[in-house]
Amino acid sequence: MADEKDTPFSPIENKVMDALEEVIDPELGIDLVNLGLIYDVKVDDNGECTVTMTLTTMGCPLGDILNRDITKAVTSVEGVTKCNINLVWEPVWDLSRMSRFAKIALGIHG
C-alpha cells in the first residue's frame, strides 16, 4: 500500500494549495504554504476539504485569524463546499520545512 504522502494532489487539491498561498501568516508576512505549515490537503467526492497543518509554535495566538482566513481561501475554490482544519503537532515544524523563497524573505541563509 502506497504512503498517502506519495499520492499526487488532484487538480482541485492543487487549486486549494494555490488558494492557501494567499493566506499570510500575520507575524511573519509569508504565506502558509511557503512556511511549510500545510502538511496535506484532501478533497473528497462531496467537495469537503481537510487541510492538515501545524503552527510555528503551540502557543501561536493567531489560530482564530488563520482558521478564518484558511476557511475563506479553501471554500473560494470552485467545487469545495466545506473546510475542515486538522491541526497537528507532529511532525514538529522547523525551519527546514520552509521554501527557499520563505527563507530568503526572512533573511535565513543556509
TrEMBL record:
Signal peptide: none annotated. It comes from the Bacteria. Residues 14-85 form the MIP18 family-like domain. Coiled coil: none annotated. This is MIP18 family-like domain-containing protein.
